[in-house]
Amino acid sequence: MGLALTLGCAGETGTVEALEESAHEFSTAPGEPNHEEITSTALAFLKPAVLKALIAGNVSTDPTFLLLNAAHFDDCNFSGGAAFVAEYQAKAVKALGPGIALLDGDALAMLAFSRSLHAVQDFYAHTNWVELGGDVLVDQSLTAFPVLAPYSSVPSTGFLVVQGDKPKQTALVRDADAPYPEYAIVTVRHRRTTAYGLVSGTVHYEPGDDCPAPVAMTHDELSKDKSSLSDRTAQHEAAKSLAIQQTRHEWCRLNQLAHDAWGDAGTARLAAWVADPSAAPDCTTE
Ligand SMILES: [Zn+2]
Predict the structure, then answer these.
(1) Which of 105, 113, 193, 220 is the most buried (most CB within 10 A)?
(2) Cα–Cα–Cα angle for 66, 71, 77, rounded to 5 degrees
(3) Separation of CA 171 and ligand 1 centre (Å)
(4) Which pLDDT value is given to residue 28?
(5) Number of folded domains in the chain?
(6) What is the pLDDT of residue 1?
(7) 35 C-alpha vs ligand 1 centroid, how far in Å?
(8) d(CA 205, CA 115)
(9) What is the Å distance from ligand 1's center to 99 Cα?
(10) How many angstroms separate the alpha carbon of residue 72 from the centre of ligand 1?
(11) Which one-letter DSSP state was computed for residue 3?
(12) For the whole model, what pTM was predicted?
C-alpha cells in the first residue's frame, strides 16, 4: 500500500482521504485483486476456509495499518517492516500453542500470519528490489524473519539496506533524470566499495520517513503494485512472482517456527489447514 497523496495537511481529513485512496493499493480494488491472487496462488493447497481467512486478513491489513509504514515496507523502514513480519509470525506461532482453545487459536494464528504475508508481498511491490535486478527471495531461511538493519547487506543479493542517515564516508547516488527503471537504481559507495542500495517509496501520510533525500522516491515513482502502470508491467509481473514465492516460503517458515515452539503438535495444527498435501511445498527444499 502507500499512494503518495497530495493532501494539504495531516490529521482527520488526511486519514479519511488516505483510506479512500488506499482502496486502490497493491491493489485490492477496483478490479485488481493482487494480494488475493498472490495469496491464493501461493497457498492453493490450503482448505478454502483457511485461504479465505488468510486473504481477508491480508487485505484488511491496508485499512487496519493504514498509517503504519512498517506494515507495507514504505518510507525505507526496512528494520520496521522486518520486525513487523517477525512479530506477527511469532504471534501466529503463540496462538498455535496449547494455552489457547483450538478454534480461537487457529483464527488468531491465521490473522497474524496473514498480516506477515501482506508485508512480505508489499516488499517486492514497494521497493526497488526488482529494478536492482533482484530475482531471488529477500530471505529463504527457516528461522525467524531476519532483521534488516540500516546499512546492512542483504545476504541473498548483497543489496545494502538504505535507511536513515548514511554512515560517514558514504555516498548515495541516484540519477533522478533517467527514465524508469534506471532512475530507481540506487548506488551506495563506501570508501572503495560500491553496492546497490535498497530503498522503498515514501508515503507522506504515514508518519516517519527513513529515505535519505538524495535517493528518495515517492510511492508512485517506485510502486509496481498494479498491472495498469503501463511503463512497468514487466516489473509488476516480476514483483508478483517473487511475492508468490515468498508467500509460499513463509508457509514453510511458519511450520518450522511452530515445530521449534511446540514440536509435532505445532505442525499438526498447521497440517489440519491443508486440503491437498501433495500440492504443498516441500519445505526441505523450498
Ligand atoms: Zn500494504
Answers:
(1) 113
(2) 110
(3) 30
(4) 44
(5) 1
(6) 43
(7) 9
(8) 20
(9) 31
(10) 4
(11) -
(12) 0.90
Tell me what pLDDT residue 18 has: 53
From ligand 1's centre to the CA of 241, what distance in Å? 17
Position 221 in a domain: yes
Neighbours of 255 (CB within 10 A): 20
Q: How far is the CA of 191 from the centre of ligand 1 (A)?
A: 36
* Residue 18 burial (10 A CB sphere; 0-12, 13-18, 19+): buried
Kindly state whether residue 119 falls inside one of the protein's structural domains.
Answer: yes
Domain membership of residue 170 (yes or no) is no
For 120-151, the pLDDT digits (tens) are 999 999 999 999 999 999 999 999 999 999 99
Low-confidence ranges of the chain (pLDDT < 50): 1-14, 16, 19-20, 22-24, 27-30
* 201 in any annotated domain: no
Look at residue 228 in the predicted model and tell me its pLDDT: 85
pLDDT for res 31: 54
Q: What pLDDT does 10 receive?
A: 36
Residues 6+ apart with CB under 8 A from 267: 255, 258, 259
Q: Where are the beta strands (DSSP E) in 25-180?
A: 160-161, 170-173
Let me know: does 35 contact 1? Beta carbons within 8 Å.
Answer: no
Helix (H), strand (E), coil (C) string for 178-235: CCCCHHHCCEEEECCEEEEEECECECCCCCCCCCCHHHCCEHHHHCCCCCCCHHHHHH
Q: Separation of 57 CA from ligand 1 center, angstroms?
A: 12
Domain that holds residue 84: 26-147+216-279
Q: Count of CB atoms within 10 A of residue 49's CB?
A: 11
